[in-house]
Amino acid sequence: MNVDALLQQFRTDLEAAADPAAVEEVRRTHTGKKSPIKTSFKELRNVAPEDRTSVAAALNSASETITAELEMATKSIAARALAAQLNAEWEDLSMPGQATRRGARHPLTVVENRCMTVLRRLGFDLVDGPEIDTAYYNFDALNIPEHHPARDMQDTFWVTGGLLLRSHTTTVQARVLASKPSLPIRIASAGRVYRNEAVDATHLAMFHQLEGLWVDRGLTFANLKGLLSFIAKSLYGEGRIRFKPKFYPYTEPSVGVDLACALCDGEGCEACHGAGWVTILGAGMVHPKVFKEFGYDPDEVSGIAFGLGTTRMAAQWAGVSKVKSLYDQELAVLHDLHRPPAGGSK
Amino acid sequence: MKISTSVLRRFVEVPDDGRTLRNLFDDIGVEVKRHDIERGLFTLELLANRGDHHCYIGLAREISGRTGTATCGPEYATLTSGDSPHPLVIETDLCSQYSITLLERNGPGTDLSADELAPLDAAEIHSVSPAVDATNLANLEFGQPTHCFDADTIVGPITIRRSRDGERAWPLFAEERVEVPAGSIVIADDEKILAIAGVIGCEESKATKDTTRILLESAAFDPIAVRKASRALHIHTDSSARFERGSDVSQVLVGAGRVVHLLQGHGWSSSMISGVVGSWTDEQRTIALHTEAAATFLDHPLDTAEICDRLGRYGFKVAESGGVLSVTVPPHRVWDVEFTADLYEEIAKSIGYNDTATNLPPVDMGALPSAGDNAKAEVEDVLIGAGFYEVFTNGFHGTALREKLGVSEDHALWNHVQTTNALDRGYGLVKNNALAQAVEALACNVRAQTSPIQMYEWTRTFHPDATAANKVCTERHLLWAIADGNIEPNRWADKPRHASAWLFKGIVEEIGTTLGIPLLVGPADAHHPLSDCLHPGRQAAVTLGGKTVGVLGEVHPGIAKAFKLKRSRPVYLELDRNALEAAPTVKRYAERSMHQPIMRSLAFSLPPRVAAGDVVNLMMNKGPEWLEQVDIVDLFAHDDSGTPMRAVTFSLRYGNENGDRSADSVNQASEALIAAIESALGPKGVKLRA
Q1: Any CB–CB contact under 8 A between B583 and chain A?
Q2: pTM, whole model, 2 decimals?
Q3: Residues of B numbered 11-30 whose beta carbons fall under 8 angstroms of chain A's beta carbons: which are they?
Q4: Distance separating alpha carbons of residues B7 and B264, to the nearest angstrom
Q5: Which residues contact A124 (CB under 8 A, 6 or more apart)?
Q6: S-S: B289 plus which of A319, A340, B233, B325, CB 3.0-4.6 Å?
Q7: A131: nearest CA in chain B?
Q8: Rg (CA), chain A
Q9: pLDDT tens column, A200-252
């Protein structure tokens, strides 16, 4: 019984094994029931008794060696196979990712939603109204009688039947007041408005507004300013704001809210055309004539009305200088507004 | 209005620093559109209701109201009402006061000085002649429009009256006579119209450099009458701008006096007696004001003395009686001050809008988005998740767009609500459908080589309807989406997946699932207005509760061609927004058996025009109750003796609630289904695939 030869044969076979299957074959050949070593163990009984102990020890040692070397070989082969597999499975991950790309809400909707988030904290509900409306709700009920210069401020699209395309969302406020809901009234209206203007990069025949109305007993000018400050700071952060007198036919007193230019903080710079401030809000206390028109006693109730030019806000926040591009349905623009350029762009 | 800082200083003290003055203008509600720092010039945008701001004295008064510094004005001759230098007749009450003053020149006269002309220079008004320059100056300084007639051109008395039908006048600078709108206020003599009141003088009576006798007109006209005439004639002048906003009748002789004063220094003389007609009297409007209420409204400590002081700066007179203030409105403010709220505004402006208190009123509870708002957001999430971008289109379009749809005059999409005064031809029709603009938007993106194109919009369409509440139209709120191109271009490793009607069918299914409403995509609805605009073989109706609430399909190739889409096959989806706000009705979850269901597959060959959905419906109807679900899991096209066939594999899920469903019973059920389908659809060419 030549244990050394047996071991030698095992090592020769193992060395020739190049993959896990071959190693497994060597394992079967050299450790299976009919393997040389198992056969040798069976033949121990034929060994002379005086030699049997030493031969058995040699066989045990050889068996352990075979098991250990097979283990090592298995691990080594597996490692090599894994390395080869990994090498073969290299992917060029510089290629674009393959998840379905999300689209996006229009910047105007984003702005509108942001505004409504702020207003809902104050209890404002969003209400809707017709886009084709009467001159009564668009003008007369709002203290803009026929031939008043204020009608020039809102050149109007008239349509068949003597109706008009609303020139502001204040029509919705008028309709709510006409419906005489219980106090307090806290509503916001948002949507398209129309102006009969020649369209260019900065003038649109259709754009968006968002307006709010708060009617209750005892609302004051200080409340108006408090509300406007809250809205401005919620939407624009803690930048400086200022109030200035304005004229709106349906409010008295009327107020404009300016935000300090982010670059010059009100000092005037090239970016803000020297103004130092950007108007973000128009507002005022509801005009007594408007209240009277709808049967409210202006000595009993007061109201705060305000409007946000959501189109201009969207342009400002998106960094778009020509508001018309927001309405051009150019997906390339909307795409660029939504996500940064893919790799490879400069 | 363009003004000079140095001229303004003649009327009121203002800050030396241009930036501080600019801020002061903002503070009093006068918007600065442009500031020429070097020349000290401001271009101002004035409030639409403040005619009194259209002059230096008006701006000075506003600044004084805020700063408390006194105002002063340039000199003017004191004219008195007396025997008219020319016969005057007034026949309309639309002129509350009309005056004429005679000025005569014996020698050549001299031009106004550069210092006197400074306001004109700032306003970029060219010097014409001393007389015309003086009238322009009086308007800029005092806000009182005046006009010079050459007295020697006037025949008979000067009459202030309404114009008659067909009457014509020759306005200054016009090339020919124009018809004056009937009922306008005109100044006329026996032969001609001398001026269209408040708007413009006329050529035939104008003062020239050779004129030696001037009849100086200074008057106050009805704002609306002036405005109507100005708009009808398309003539807009500084005078009309002033009168349209309501002039200060008390300044009629002051303005004329300023002209007289200026011309007296340059070779002209006057008797200082003016002819004045008209029924104006200072109405002395008073408004009651409670000090405490004002203090509460502004949340600012106020006493009577302070209110008197602040309102006094603007020209209001305040008297106290029994704890109530009686505030008299000055003539230059009768057009815009009527209510106590107007006085609150004056006091607030005087204090400074930024110097009164700021106080957010208490709010008991916030509001939640409505169910409709939530539904909209959820639908958007579905679309955005599928790669769609939101866009906005106009509410109107031109007739050219309608033509591209190719609809005839009897088609539901032919009639539109129309705009009657649109400046742009492209805005003539208020849209009655969203498809045309959607395809147009898509075509623009195709031309820009953008791909894929996936857009959606929440919009509304307008449908002529004489029975509507407004007797003109109804408005329909809807969602549309359009798609074209390889909708997953980033999946570069896979085959291109082009937008198709199935994309929108899947989206409708997802919307239905998300909202919990049973939206179904079924056979096309021939009554839908868009039915003719979609591919007849590739469109479907979206129904909810048996009612059509939308449509989807491929845009009709004829329409695509009209929009010059050569290779594009856009697909379109439209859904009624109201339907999306329906209450959820779909049961979201049914407890599943702990035992595995038993699955079987059946494949059938379907000839053209036999819908796979019909096979599914048939299986569900004919199968046993425990046939829980049938899904289409595979499809491939093949040819059967020249007939193009589709091999469709259906996956059948048989319930096994108690775990005792035998394979035999399932197989028998499947065999019964095969028989049922072959019986019902076999005559149409449906065959079981082995």
Answers
A1: no
A2: 0.86
A3: 19, 22-23, 26-29
A4: 21
A5: A116, A186, A187, A188, A212, A214, B367
A6: B325
A7: B475
A8: 42
A9: 766 789 999 999 999 999 999 999 999 999 999 998 888 889 999 999 999 99
